[in-house]
Amino acid sequence: MGIGTGIFLIVVGAILAFAIAPDTWEVVNLNIVGYICIAAGVLALILGMVQTRQRSHTSHRVERYDDRPPPPA
Q: What are all long-range contacts of 28-33, with beta carbons under 8 Å and residues at least 24 apart?
């Protein structure tokens, strides 16, 4: 999950939690599903930021062998 997925889940959760009337579907409480989606979106957003931060702090070391003689033919 990335940052975009987290934002998407937050938006869908907010729509389910706040924009839909609670009496629209009696099988599942859509308000609770919305709050769960918001929580999952916040978690995905935090994890995406942590992964991006770790990726930006990596260093790569390149060893050069300019002084090495060519291989025998």
A: none
Query: Using CA atoms, how far apart are residues 6 and 11, in angstroms rounded to an integer?
Result: 9
- Alpha carbons 35 and 61: distance in angstroms, whole number: 45
- The reported pTM is 0.70
> Tens of pLDDT along 20-73?
877 667 788 888 999 999 999 999 999 999 888 776 666 777 777 777 777 787
Q: What are phi and psi of 61, to 5 degrees?
A: -110, 125
DSSP letter (8 states) at residue 62:
-
